[in-house]
Amino acid sequence: TRQKRFVALFSPLVLLDAFLSSWKRGCSCCCCCVCVCARSEKKKKYKNETMRPILLKGHERSITVVKYNYDGDLLFTASKDHVPSVWRAEDGGRLGTFAGHKGTIWDLDIDRFTTRVLTASADASARLWDAETGECIKVFSHRGPVRGVAWADGSNSFATISDPFVDHNAQISIYDIPQDASPDDYDDTPRLEIDLPKTNDGKRVNPTNVVWLNLNEALFVTFDNGSIRLYDPVTGEELEEFFPHEKKINRVSFNKEKTLFITSSADFTAKLYDVVNLHHLKTYKTERPVNDAVIHPHKDHILLGGGQEAMSVTTTRGDVGKFETRFFHLVYEEEFGKVKGHFGPINAIGINPNGRSYASGAEDGYVRLFF
């Protein structure tokens, strides 16, 4: 068999064609070296190729959130321009917008089957949308700016977190909106409100992210003092509190099975934890604040986004600001790659559930879709 392969490889027609190709390129080597020349040309071709992103120009202000739906065929983005957008994940085609908010969109979430979308806004409201038509189904008013929103497993209820406003403390609110009920029957008052009072030293602690754990066993909430708390979604009781960071936790991201989570902090680090026992597993260190981090669904890779603080962007060069997506090995904590392109700090990163593409949104107002 080996002899047949050798004969097929060096048959007269193959050798003649290869020799003529090498002669046209000015190669003076003999026919026996043609295969080596062809291999080197192929390597040179791939070496010169660079990753070219699809630039999504649909927002007028800084990007705040980038999120794929469960199936990975749609990409949802939001910014400070009040109008969230939805795009085709395969080619970046814009499908539509969700118009109605009057303030910055801080967060959004999509239900399991991409039928309904929730948005959290600085206009002190959370809105429920029809994902297909873009129609606003219901408005849920709050006392202060709504910082985060998350669907519960089953998509029959959701939770929001809101900032303190005047004399009102920050709050966690839980609403019930059954799928089989008419939107007219939805109650716009929360089923449960969890008040977040000031700490013992008189400081207010503001929530930054909210996530439901598996089977809706607990509400997972991060705060701007570097702490994480778990709450009972039925009684509102605080179950646990720990401090993974010294400064504000900007974002938290879970893997698909919700067995691991990674936090992104202003203390220049991202940390990986086990969800079951809340044990600290790994730390990924950078030289700038980390605004978002995601776990690759299939590979041992971590994607980090951040950069210099937005208020200092205009005073330094782009290469100093570190406005790139950084790739770390999940186990060895080593950085092995960077992807540049943005002209401001990366505020949000989302990775496709199939693991073949990711999107990043930055302070420059652009979303870049990489394959």
What does this structure look like?
The chain has a 4-stranded antiparallel β-sheet, with no helix packed on it. Strands 2-3-4-5 form a 4-stranded antiparallel β-sheet, with no helix packed on it. Mean pLDDT is 88; it is low at 1-11, 27-39 and 41-48. Helix 2 crosses helix 3. The chain is mainly β. Helix content is 11%, strand content 41%. It contains 4 helices and 28 strands. The relative contact order is 0.11. A hairpin with a 5-residue loop joins strand 10 and strand 11. The chain starts with a helix and ends with a strand.
Topology:
Layout (H helix, E strand, L loop, with lengths): L1 H8 L2 H13 L9 H15 L5 E3 L6 E6 L5 E6 L5 E4 L5 E4 L7 E6 L5 E6 L3 E6 L5 E6 L4 E6 L5 E6 L7 E7 L15 E5 L10 E6 L6 E5 L4 E4 L6 E5 L6 E6 L5 E6 L3 E6 L5 E6 L4 E6 L5 E6 L11 H4 L3 E5 L5 E5 L6 E6 L6 E5 L4 E4 L1
Helix pairs in contact: 2-3
Short recap of the structure:
This protein has 371 residues and is mostly beta strands.
Q: Which keywords apply here?
A:
41% strand, 11% helix, four-stranded antiparallel β-sheet, 4 helices, mainly beta, 28 strands, 371 residues, disordered N terminus
Outline the biggest β-sheet: 4 strands, antiparallel
Query: How many helices in DSSP terms?
Result: 4
Distance between the termini: 39 Å
The general outline is globular
The tally of strands reads 28
Structural class: mainly beta
